[in-house]
Write a structure and sequence with these properties.
The structure holds three protein chains of three kinds. In chain A, helix 8 crosses helix 9, helix 12 crosses helix 13 and helix 13 packs across helix 15. Chain A is globular. Chain A contains 15 helices and no strands. By secondary structure, chain A is mostly helical. Chain B has 14 helices and 13 strands. In chain B, the strands form two sheets. A seven-stranded mixed beta sheet of chain B has the order 8-7-9-10-11-12-13, with helices on both faces. The two termini of chain B are 35 Å apart. The relative contact order of chain B is 0.13. By secondary structure, chain C is mainly α. Helices cover 74% and strands 3% of the residues of chain C. In chain C, strands 1-2 form a two-stranded antiparallel ribbon. In chain C, helix 5 runs antiparallel to helix 8 and helix 10 packs across helix 11. The N and C termini of chain C lie far apart (42 Å). Classes of the chains: A mainly alpha, B alpha/beta, C mainly alpha. At the A-C interface, helix 6, helix 12 and helix 14 of A face helix 4, helix 9 and helix 11 of C.
């Protein structure tokens, strides 16, 4: 597919999404769509570190929590307007990411994953036990919603931000930095041997992905109006990983598709209750074995085959 | 004319028409249950969902809910919220927006309940909370929310008086203090024991997945307390009782766990439990049960081939409350009227828990119901009801009204 | 004070022993196949659940149930290797990790489906308590510690003294050289998964007898197991043994003398500190 056709496809997707509040009469689906768009931001961030750089981070939900709590708490204690706290949330998250990224990135591969998972556990334990600040497991309710809680308005806010963050991810991916990140995924030692300080780029990807998560967290808090530590546990970090894998890692469209899947799929399976976990796990295993390139990868392959045939005929 | 009077007039007209035709219409009322059916909270949530379904079957068999000359048969949709706030919000949105449900029952666990409580005030729906004990759920004066279980510190206050009366001065606490309502229980106990010169000398924590409590207990053993107070979910708490004996701690043990004999004996021997006190709401135990309680236990055991959890009647009672309120309000559609009717209701005769009405009503102005509290002691293999813990529901209700 | 420190050390030994067994299984798989076998905890707990089921529902004595559970566990380990990990062996290492996560969800779901959400405790009937001065040690706890030591020694003897054990070590150290030396590289993954799952199931039985098995417990142990690996050094057997013991005792002492609320945080902070000061772990080889 050439560049202009691709932009046209993105425009169409954007337009279709923008019409959702008018089309969806059952507001439950609008509610899920807002969550899915928040997860688009989350997954785009996860994709930068996981898909492009090749480092599986399991602290995404923890950073989402830091974003959610910082936006909420700054608003509560300093009476900042919502837009200001939302803008501050990714910055606070970035500070935490710098502090955790440095030790985490000293190890590679699976061990990086485990260390980040430990950080997610630590974040939850601190959120639960530092009650003076976070109100502990009880959580914080009545977090202010913008525009008097209008769901339609919030949908458009989240849609704009999801589109902007997707565009930013595409920019990063196509830049020189993106190329180096991809090179790190292919062969980190080689990158080091040609005199590039790989650690700087890894830390950059890690911090940027944390900022994405922080923004998603702030959007979540002001949408649901309630947060507690449980929402930001390891299970949600795994969802972010799942979104990237299912959609297609290292692509821009992948996280968008993956985010909608991880929000809507469990809702579709809500009837299945305890089979849900088994089914979910099975999908993950089968998808990785048989479809490691994700849905976007499969589509690209199909389109490629199709257009080749057309050219031949 | 407001829209409410219009609906009222239409309803009255419909009633008049159907009454004159002498034909009782059979209708369906769909109610929702949002509760933890899988995961850690399922120990509480699953029996609650079962209890609601059982109550619905009973009510349907007895003719359903009567509104004017209409008979409503109850249909129950239960969704799993895994005790998770996001899942609970999604489940309730699905119930209200997609399934068109107006009455939502269940709610075993505090985090998920608080998340739903934060928006239910804006919905045309009524929410009945069960086992979730976090106090702040009923301090926000949400007009369409009520709760059958009393907050933990209401019980803690009564427990503190009881412990103080036993003459203990130095009390060590070991519990799930990272959970809000357990900490509130301990705070209430502390206020009471301080009045008689006692103090809490340690507040040690265990988490939901901890099973080895020996580090915390060893620390407490070194402090030489007069008594130990264990607050938390039954599964870890059972290990505290066992390991305290194993560490040779021979001091009075008090608790707030609401576990059944079966749950404790899985972990401990009966000798290790001998003499332990449980200071808690007088929930379902066969020894203290009323006629309703015995029937509930028998029916539940027969229907589900398992004993009901002690807290499951909180959800069972919700449906009888709802039935009484809808019948009193004379409408199933106007949730504002039904919510108001619930607040004005006396305790319905079919409920299982022993509620203490405030000013003759089951729920106070905050939408909170109160049960009696009791002191239970483990004696020779089972919980024995020893005495009622004096608890002033009216005074507590006034205290609850001052919070927000 | 001294008695308290000694008692806390004894307290930490039992859980430390479980950590060592879990970590040994993880380190074998990682050292030889390069897979972070995340489902290890849930599969181990499956073994514990199975023992519970055989004892309570089938009336088997505990000592008869254990071999059955071990055999089933080994079989399950082989299946996991052949069906789930083998297809992604030559793919990017992320894929193996994602497969491991999916497997974890599946096994957790299967455990839930088969054994329910209530916690289970394997009944042993051992409730005596030994006293040494001011220190108390329950009988069962002592047996768990002894069993862990026996298993660790057996594992070391196997790796050091037997032909298969030496082959495994050879592959771990240098795959290509091992092939040149005529080691059958194809059967090694199966043997490794069998052994590591057997160790895991043993740990699961210990947890089920001394503590309890419930949904999510296995995931908790596998995270701690990986923390032990990082602490001790990747792929190092002595590192796993030292790391597991150190982590168990650290947790116990931290809960007793610092804060029980932040007990797990302290354990992870120790792990992160080791990473900062000595990234290869306490006993790991310098890369």
């Amino acid at each position: 597919m050439n560049r202009s056709l691709q932009s046209l496809a993105w425009l169409l997707v954007f337009a279709a999404l923008a019409m959702l509040p008018q089309v969806l009469t059952v507001k439950y689906y609008l509610h899920l769509s807002i969550l899915a768009l928040i997860w688009v931001i989350m997954a785009q961030g996860q994709n930068l570190i996981q898909g492009y750089t090749g480092y599986v981070s399991i602290v995404g939900a923890g950073f989402m929590g830091i974003g959610a709590y910082s936006s909420t708490l700054i608003g509560m204690h300093f009476q900042w307007p919502i837009w200001a706290t939302m803008a501050a949330a990714p910055l606070v998250t970035a500070l935490f990411a710098l502090a955790t990224g440095y030790p985490s990135l000293r190890v590679k591969g699976h061990y990086f994953a485990i260390v980040t998972l430990a950080f997610n556990l630590i974040i939850v334990i601190v959120l639960v036990n530092y009650k003076e600040l976070t109100n502990g497991e009880t959580g914080i309710s009545n977090i202010p919603k913008p525009w008097g809680g209008s769901r339609d308005a919030y949908f458009y806010l989240v849609l704009m931000l999801a589109a902007a963050m997707t565009a930013l991810a595409a920019l990063i991916a196509r830049s020189r930095v993106g190329e180096i990140l991809l090179a790190i995924r292919q062969n980190e030692d080689l990158v080091g041997s040609i005199g590039i300080a790989a650690w700087k780029y890894k830390l950059f990807a890690f911090v940027i992905s944390a900022m994405y998560a922080g923004l998603a967290g702030a959007l979540y808090a002001h949408f649901q109006s309630f947060i507690n530590p449980e929402i930001f546990g390891v299970a949600q970090s795994l969802d972010a990983i799942l979104a990237v894998i299912l959609g297609g890692s290292g692509t821009i469209a992948g996280p968008v598709i993956g985010a909608f899947l991880v929000v809507f799929l469990p809702e579709m399976l809500r009837f299945a209750d305890s089979f849900r976990l088994i089914l979910y796990g099975l999908i993950l295993v089968l998808a990785t074995i048989f479809m490691p390139i994700g849905i976007v990868g499969v589509c690209k392959a199909l389109i490629g085959r199709f257009s080749r045939k057309e050219a031949a005929s | 004319m407001s829209s409410r009077t219009i609906t009222g007039a239409v309803a009255a007209l419909t009633i008049a028409l159907t009454a004159s035709s002498g034909f009782a219409a059979e209708k369906k009322l769909t109610i929702g249950v949002a509760d933890a059916l899988t995961g850690g909270g399922a120990v509480y949530g699953l029996p609650q969902a079962n209890a609601v379904k059982m109550a619905a079957d009973e009510i349907n068999a007895a003719g359903g809910i009567k509104v004017g000359s209409d008979n409503y048969k109850i249909d129950v949709i239960a969704y799993d919220d895994k005790a998770n706030p996001t899942e609970a919000t999604n489940a309730v949105r699905k119930l209200i927006d997609r399934d068109g449900v107006k009455y939502i029952l269940g709610f075993c666990c505090s985090g998920s309940t608080s998340a739903v409580a934060s928006f239910i005030g804006n919905e045309k729906a009524v929410m009945l909370v069960g086992n979730a004990a976090e106090r702040s759920i009923t301090t926000k004066k949400i007009p369409n929310l009520v709760r059958t279980r009393p907050p933990a510190d209401y019980t803690g206050q009564a427990a503190g008086t009881f412990i103080a009366r036993k003459g203990h001065k130095r009390i060590a606490v070991l519990g799930a203090l990272d959970v809000g309502f357990y900490a509130q229980y301990v705070d209430a106990v502390e206020r009471e024991v301080k009045k008689t010169g006692g103090e809490i000398i340690a507040r040690e924590v265990f988490s939901l997945r901890d099973r080895d409590m020996t580090p915390q207990l060893t620390k407490i053993r070194g402090l030489n307390p007069d008594a130990i107070l264990v607050v938390g979910y039954v599964e870890p708490a059972a290990f505290v009782y066992r390991q305290a004996v194993e560490l040779g701690m021979n001091i009075p043990r008090y608790g707030f766990t609401s576990g059944s004999e079966e749950q404790f004996l899985r972990v401990t021997t009966s000798e290790q439990m001998e003499g332990v006190w449980d200071l808690r709401p007088t929930e379902l135990t066969l020894l203290s049960a009323t006629k309703n309680g015995i029937a509930y236990h028998a029916n539940y055991t027969k229907k589900y081939n398992a004993s009901p959890s002690p807290s499951s009647p909180y959800a069972y009672d919700q449906l009888y409350v709802l039935k009484a309120a809808i019948e009193a309000a004379g409408t199933v559609d106007d949730t504002v009227v039904v919510a108001k009717a619930i607040r004005g209701l006396p305790v319905p005769p079919q409920v299982v828990m022993q509620y203490q009405p405030v000013d003759g009503k089951m729920f106070d102005v905050n939408g909170q119901a109160y049960t009696s509290n009791g002191a239970f002691q483990w004696q020779k293999g089972k919980w024995v009801f020893v005495e009622d813990l004096p608890s002033d529901s009216k005074a507590y209700s006034q205290f609850l009204s001052t919070l927000n | 004070m001294l008695i308290e420190i000694l008692q806390q050390t004894i307290n930490g030994l039992a859980i430390g022993g479980v950590y060592v067994l879990i970590a040994l299984g993880l380190t074998t798989v990682f050292g030889i196949l390069g897979i972070a076998h995340f489902a290890h905890g849930s599969i181990s707990m499956f073994g514990g659940y199975l023992t519970f089921f055989l004892v309570t529902s089938q009336g088997l004595p505990v000592l008869a149930a254990i071999p059955v559970a071990l055999a089933t566990g080994i079989l399950l380990g082989l299946l996991v290797e052949m069906l789930a990990y083998r297809p992604v062996r030559h793919a990017n290492h992320i894929n193996a990790f994602i497969v491991a996560l999916g497997l974890t969800m599946m096994v957790e779901g299967i455990n839930l489906q088969l054994f329910g959400h209530e916690q289970v405790v394997i009944p042993t009937g051992l409730s005596r308590v030994f006293r040494f001065g001011g220190i108390t040690v329950p009988e069962l706890r002592l047996y768990v510690i002894i069993a862990a030591i026996v298993l660790v020694v057996a594992m070391m003897v196997f790796v050091e003294r037997t032909k298969t054990g030496q082959a495994i070590r050879a592959v771990a150290e240098n795959r290509d050289a091992a092939i040149l030396m005529g080691v059958n590289v194809k059967s090694i993954p199966l043997i490794v998964f069998g052994i590591s799952t057997a160790l895991g199931v043993a740990a699961g039985i210990m947890v089920g007898a001394l503590f309890a098995i419930a949904p999510g417990i296995g995931e908790g142990f596998v995270v701690k197991g990986f923390a032990v690996l990082i602490l001790g050094g990747l792929g190092s057997f002595p590192g796993a043994i030292l790391g597991g013991t150190v982590l168990g005792i650290t947790e116990s002492i931290a809960a007793g003398f610092i804060s029980s609320a932040y007990k797990d945080v302290i354990a992870f902070v120790v792990m992160i500190l080791v990473l900062l000061i000595r990234p290869q772990g306490l006993l790991g080889r310098t890369p």
